[in-house]
Design brief:
two-stranded parallel sheet, 186 residues, 2 strands, single chain, mainly alpha, Endonuclease III, domain 1, 52% helix
Length: 186
């Protein structure tokens, strides 16, 4: 039997996400933006809610293209607010649009968003050695620094907990428990 992190449970969407994505190092700007958009939408909700709507988000938000999203009009926001396939929260939708513009500015300044965000972990994955899921923190010094800097750059819904979740999702942090089969594979 395969040993996974305890939070995975039996939901096939969670199992697939855990086994194939969570903790895998992501350096591609568009994939990083996708996870950032999904983390914003997840704020205050369970990750499985967002995960199950991921394809709907992809369709509604133009394949997570920050260049397109940054130019959304009020009409597009109204359409998104009527889309039952996504999380319809005006503040979150407006934050995604604002974040897309800020994301593009960071790309211009650093050459890529990946270079910028990975600098918060010295360009290398932090590999923790947690034995139990209950040991895993919800934030870190790195996520707090990242949050402060993102907010300074105009990003919204990017508190230290959301930033830490983003760091876990994109493999900046390996928080698989040590007994998980993915611990040494990400």
């Amino acid at each position: 039997m395969i040993k996974r992190c305890d939070w995975v449970g039996t939901d096939p969407a969670y199992i697939e996400y855990h086994d194939e994505e969570w903790g895998v190092q992501v350096h591609d700007d568009y994939k990083i933006f996708e996870f950032l958009l999904l983390e914003v939408m997840q704020a205050g909700l369970s990750w499985i809610t967002v995960l199950k709507k991921r394809d709907n988000f992809r369709k509604a938000f133009d394949n997570f293209d920050p260049e397109v999203i940054a130019k959304y009009s009020r009409r597009k926001v109204d359409l998104l607010m009527r889309d039952g396939g996504i999380i319809r929260n005006m503040r979150k939708i407006e934050s995604v649009i604002s974040n897309a513009g800020a994301f593009i500015e960071v790309q211009r300044e650093f050459g890529s968003f990946g270079s910028y965000i990975w600098s918060f972990v010295g360009g290398r994955q932090i590999k923790n050695g947690w034995k139990r899921v209950s040991d895993i923190p919800s934030r870190s010094l790195e996520s707090e620094r990242l949050s402060r800097d993102l907010i300074r750059r105009g990003f919204k819904f990017v508190g230290p907990v959301i930033c830490y979740s983003h760091m876990q999702a994109t493999g900046m942090v390996n928080d698989h428990i040590t007994s998980c089969f993915r611990y040494d594979k990400v």
